[in-house]
Amino acid sequence: MSDEAALIATLNAHLWRNAFNVWLGLELVAAGEAGVEIRLPWRAEFMSNPDRGGAHGGILAALIDTAADFAIAARLGRPLPTIDLRVDYHRPAAAGPMLVRGTVIRLGRQIATAEASVFDSEDRLLASGRGAYFAASAS
Amino acid sequence: MSDEAALIATLNAHLWRNAFNVWLGLELVAAGEAGVEIRLPWRAEFMSNPDRGGAHGGILAALIDTAADFAIAARLGRPLPTIDLRVDYHRPAAAGPMLVRGTVIRLGRQIATAEASVFDSEDRLLASGRGAYFAASAS
Amino acid sequence: MSDEAALIATLNAHLWRNAFNVWLGLELVAAGEAGVEIRLPWRAEFMSNPDRGGAHGGILAALIDTAADFAIAARLGRPLPTIDLRVDYHRPAAAGPMLVRGTVIRLGRQIATAEASVFDSEDRLLASGRGAYFAASAS
Amino acid sequence: MSDEAALIATLNAHLWRNAFNVWLGLELVAAGEAGVEIRLPWRAEFMSNPDRGGAHGGILAALIDTAADFAIAARLGRPLPTIDLRVDYHRPAAAGPMLVRGTVIRLGRQIATAEASVFDSEDRLLASGRGAYFAASAS
Known about the structure:
Four copies of one chain form a homotetramer. With 139 residues, the first copy, chain A, is α+β, with helices and mostly antiparallel strands. Chain A has one domain (3-134): Hotdog Thioesterase (Thiol Ester Dehydrase, Chain A, Roll). Chain A has three helices and six strands. Chain A has a six-stranded antiparallel β-sheet with strand order 1-2-4-5-6-3. In chain A, strand 1 and strand 2 form a beta hairpin. The longest helix of chain A has 20 residues, at 57-76. The first copy, chain A, is globular. At the A-B interface, helix 2, helix 3 and strand 3 of A face helix 2, helix 3 and strand 3 of B.
């Protein structure tokens, strides 16, 4: 198993301890110094407004928080508690699988900052955002 | 039916057109100029880290976005598209029912800003935040 | 000297150690458990777009960061380092004196969250926002 | 004069209509599809806490708002009104000249989102953040 494959296995083990991540259907498929990629299939329960279509803002927020935190986890070996999260909604998402890319902005000893972007199956940017994470925590 | 009861019925009809809100189990129980209150029971799928306990950050983000937007809807008769959302996580949430209170900060002709706070069954503040909403939209 | 007058004197001493606060002309005029009020006169250098009028967004951001942090300082005796700041711009500010009110949202052992609102001389809300502050810092 | 030199001249003309930008000493030195770069010298009035050193958070917020907005202006020919701004503070800034890079995240017809990062003279990241801007405005 390559280093990346071992890292992906470790990170998915962390990811799947979280019941909501399992419900979302998240799978981390790439990980390294440059960040992580997480994929998920569509679920009918994601649907927000049936007129405008697309995933509920809370689903997209969950994806951004998770991918940003796991970009940190790809460096530190574990995700960190979220201090705060900020999400920009760029386009309504049509029903379909999504891909989230997370990258670290700054890994400080006390605070870590990371960002993530959600794309649809045609690689259009649906939402993006940032989180601040508590790096000084004991566990 | 009182004015507030009629408003609650209208807003719950909007709320329940959204599949994710139904999955979350949201019910709007109070509405007026001062804002809205939305309740929800616990679901096992909300669980984040089983060691630290508590609801996934994405669940709390969904609650804040929804309650802030429905505080606007209590004034305008309909929720608005979210431009961006910002969430502060204050305490890990133990498993249990939650209450979200949403209030309008500023209702402009083009942009509306609203905030919401999530409480556990002992009225402790779990998370709070704000959203910017697009008021100039046609529908 | 009353307790509040003594607290105001202590907080203004902190405020005025900061050269940019002095340049802004900030004066803390009320302080207590409920939060703080800071006043400032207009300076010609605050002006943003001369067509739309009003203070530069960075001036309003500085006011919100400072008032939120000093609401914390009114409890702890000192301001804390800012982790991140979020500002909503509600109305263009006409030239004139401003008042900023800051209040604490949650004072945790590791992270503190506070908010502030900027008003013009006719008590109209110009901008509001929140900051996360690092409470676990040594100094 | 090259296309970029003409664009830089146009954008600096916009930048310098703003009294606070002039006071800050901002000069836009690069502009294109990829974004903008703005430089500024240090001023003694920028100083925040003289113990920890570094620029006031409001100064850094002003730089991020301006560079993000002018990354949009490099595409549209004019800056847009700021809806909201979010700033992450990564390191205390020592006294010295700073460079801010702004880039567009998404240019929608109604809402534009852009980000910016502030660096010190040794190219260390001091602060970064994002703004949402109102693209549907008439002027």
